[in-house]
Amino acid sequence: MVVYLIGAGPGDADLITLKAVKALNKADVVLYDYLANEEILAHAPETAERIYVGKKAGEHYKTQDQINELIIAQAEKHENVVRLKGGDPFVFGRGGEEILALMEHDIKFEVIPGVTSAIGAPTSLGLPVTHRAVATSVTIVTGHEDPTKPESQVHWDYTADTLIILMGIGNIKENTAEIMKYRSADTPVCVVESGTLPDENLVFGTLGDISDKKINTPAIMIIGDVVNMYKEIYEYQR
Ligand SMILES: C[S@@+](CC[C@H](N)C(=O)[O-])C[C@H]1O[C@@H](n2cnc3c(N)ncnc32)[C@H](O)[C@@H]1O
Fold it and tell me: 53 CA distance to ligand 1 centroid (A)?
C-alpha cells in the first residue's frame, strides 16, 4: 500500500503535474479537497472510489483527525490511495500532519508537489512576485492563523519586498491595519480571486483601502511594488 499526497495546482485542471497524473491513473481511491479541481478526478480509473473530504470555511466538514483516520483506513484496504489537495500539499495544506499520521501507522507515502496558488495565480496573470530592481524577496503568510494556538506566530513586520497572504479575506481589516504599522497606506495591493479559474477576477487597491472593496473567495493578496509594475502588464494584456 502507498498513499500519494498530491498537489492539484491552483485551480486550472491543466496545471497538475505529469507525475501526479501518473499516480492518479493507478488510484484505487481518491480523497479530495474542495480546492482541488474536480476535473482532475477524470485521471483516475472509473472504478476508483472518489471521497470528498472538503474543509470549506463555514460548511459542515470533517476535522483533520477524521481525515487522517479516513486516509489510514483507505490505505489499509487498497494498494494505491491518492490524497489530492489544492495547490501544493505543504503550503498551508496540512500535508505535513497527514504524513506524520501515516508514519505512525507505518504506511508508505510519496509526496508529489503542486503549483501553489501563492505563486501560480500571480504568475499565470503575468504578475512577477520578484522583479529585478523592484522586489528581491517574497513572504507567503497565512491571514487566518489557528485561533487555538497559545501564541500567535504571525508578526506583520515582515521585511520581504513582496508579501503574499493566503486565507486573508475574513480578517482583511485587522490584518491590513497591522501591516500598516510597518508599511505605508499607499502600498499597492492586488487581490486575485479564483486564480486560474474561469471566474478569475482581480481587485486592485492599497493597504489603506483594499478592505473596503468587495472580495470573493478563494483569494490571495499580493502586497508590494510588484503590483504597480504589474499594472502596466495588465493594461497591455487587456
Ligand atoms: C488552505 S489554503 C491552501 C493553499 C494551497 N495548499 C496552495 O498551495 O495553494 C487555501 C487558500 O489558498 C488560496 N487559494 C487557493 N486556491 C486559490 C485560487 N484559485 N485563487 C486564489 N486563491 C486561492 C486562498 O487564499 C485560500 O483561502
Answer: 16
Report domain extents, the chain. Answer: 2-112, 117-237
Distance CA 54, CA 83 (A): 12
Over residues 102-150, the pLDDT tens digits come to 999 999 999 999 999 999 999 999 999 999 999 999 999 999 998 888 8
Task: Tell the CATH topology of 2-112.
Answer: Cobalt-precorrin-4 Transmethylase; domain 1 (3.40.1010)
Residue from 220, 221, 222, 223 to probe ligand 1 pocket by mutation (most atoms less than 8 Å from CB): 220
Average pLDDT in the chain: 95
DSSP secondary structure string for all residues of the chain: -EEEEEE-BSS-GGGS-HHHHHHHHT-SEEEE-TTS-GGGGGGS-TTSEEEE----TTS----HHHHHHHHHHHHHH-SEEEEEESB-TTSSS-HHHHHHHHHHTT-EEEEE----HHHHHHHHHT--SSBTTTBS-EEEEESS--TT-SS----S----SEEEEES-STTHHHHHHHHTTTS-TT-EEEEEESTTSTT-EEEEEETTTGGGS--PSSEEEEESTHHHHHHHHHHHH-
User: Could you tell me the distance, in angstroms and rounded to a whole number, from the CA of residue 186 to the centre of ligand 1?
Assistant: 25
Q: Tell me whether residue 103 is one of the annotated catalytic residues.
A: no
Answer yes or no: are the C-beta atoms of 16 and 121 closer than 8 Å: no
Ligand 1 mutation pick, 6, 16, 90, 92, max ligand atoms within 8 A of CB? 92
